[in-house]
Amino acid sequence: MPDLFDIVVAGAGHNSLIAAAYLSKAGYRCLILEGRPLVGGGVKTAQLTLRGFHHDTCSSAHVLIQDSPLMRNNELHLDQYGLEYLFPDPVVHLPFSDGSYITQWRDIDRTCQEFAKFSKKDAEAYRRMMTEYEEMQPIFAAAAYTPIGFGKPLNERLAEHPKGKIWQRRMAMSAWEIIRDTFEDEHCRAFMVWMAYQTVEPPEAASTGRLAYAICAGRQRWSWTTPRGGSGSLTQALVRLIEAHGGVVLTNKNVTRLILDDGKCTGVECSDGTSYKAQKAVLSTIHIKHLVDMAPKEAFGEDFRAGVDSWQAGITLFASHYATTEPPKFPVAGGTLSPVAAGTMANAERGLRVSYDFAMRNVNVEEPPLLVVCSTVADPSRAPQGMHTIKVIGNQPYELKEGPEHWDEIKDRVSEANLNYLRKFAPNLTEDKILARLVESPLDLERMNAHNWHGTCHGGAQNAAQSGALRPVPGWAQHRMPIPGLYQTGATTYPGASVSGGPGRNAATVMLKDFGSSIEQAIEGKA
């Protein structure tokens, strides 16, 4: 294998692979180094319980990325590398303790009928919110897929739209304020709060107002977008593209140090003692909390290190994976429903309680808000014939009064409490239907993937202090790091976490410009 590479990439999450894919198309030879045995980071599928049961280790729905130029314009032609998406219907089902429920269907008329069961006014409000967001969605997408400083910021884009001032205020409000003032029925409010929580930001926090619209609108448009074969199908397709363009992907290569020559980053060193040099640049998707320890402190500078020191993890996850003989079956009028995605939210107030419990370091299993994903309903190929994978996700704090290590003692009890609560709505999930399980506390999530710093699968909170031009730290949002030759992508960079591909495409845009080319030329094959 030739030892000369244009770009060395530290970490193989979906964003670094997307960046490497664009760079590869532009003619740059990339070496990707992944510390774990399987590439993908949070976009990965593995046999976590039993042989033949393929579980998504973190992400399951690829909704945001559908609005990216990567997918919308088919810029990388990933369908030619084996990527295929499914769009299940229904989208999401939320049952309530009184026996009622709201189901989101791909048909907005049918979804509005669900709201109308409780309030015709709320049904009209839901339709109006979806219509209003669809009008503005191209502006939000354009801002997300433009690197900071490469175009007009979102506020300026909104100011140019006739309704932009309305949205400037909405963006600054909390999702809860909008939901509370728009919907009158408690069931409808609970559904909207559950939806707003899907980016793991407290709906009562300032500057979350867009979440009152965006999550529902995205799923209304794209469903619970499910990659055939598992979430890792996206990253596997990217690897095939990179390798087809002469790139190399190495696993079990844990990057531990940045190599600096005359102050410039020229390569990396791995824990096994091997080192790799880059002729053009190094691209990192290592969490910024760890990245700053991989070079002398003075190389990053005081302002960058101060920003990293104040980085907050935000709301963290607690997950249980099951191999089962049946999917969850939720009683509905006329029978039962087995959707790909379901959830629980006892009432809006229970959703607002989550951030308080985090602040107090409390484990709360009383009527827990849950996300329940059964991808095998839409994609039977992920399990043996007639069998299923189920993932049950709740929110629990990494930091406990007894210390994070206390999770090893209590995690099984918390998992059982979540399952018992789910059984109130899907009573078929009795013990005889469960073949195997794997429980992951917030501490386990960090152990599994170092990028899940303090248990957060989103790199860190996406609050007002860690969004936009402040992500990852003020002054360093353009993917260029304080060390020349070093670039950063991934969930700690703009526009943030979830499977959007935005940080990856934006990083490639910046790097290609610095190399004297452009992403447009790369897409056209003219770089």
Question: Would you kindly provide a written description of the structure presented here, covering whatever features stand out?
Answer:
The chain is 34% helix and 18% strand. By secondary structure, it is of the alpha/beta class. It has three domains: 5-46 and 231-311 and 456-524, 3-Layer(bba) Sandwich (FAD/NAD(P)-binding domain); 85-222, no CATH class; 315-454, Polyamine Oxidase, Chain A, domain 2 (Alpha-Beta Complex), CATH 3.90.660. The strands form five sheets. Strands 1, 2, 9, 10, 11, 12 and 20 form a seven-stranded mixed beta sheet that branches. α7 packs antiparallel against α8 (186-196). The longest helix has 25 residues, at 120-144. It is globular, with a radius of gyration of 22 Å.
Number of strands: 20
Q: What value does the average pLDDT take?
A: 97
Q: Span between N and C termini?
A: 25 Å
Major pleated sheet: 7 strands, mixed
Second CATH tier, the architecture of the largest domain: 3-Layer(bba) Sandwich
Radius of gyration: 22 Å
Number of domains: 3
CATH class bucket of the largest domain: Alpha Beta
- CATH H-level superfamily of the largest domain: FAD/NAD(P)-binding domain
CATH topology of the largest domain: FAD/NAD(P)-binding domain
Shape: globular
Q: Low-confidence segments, ≥5 residues, pLDDT <50?
A: none
**Helix/strand/pairing class, anyone?**
alpha/beta
- % residues in beta strands: 15-25%
**Tally of individual helices:** 18
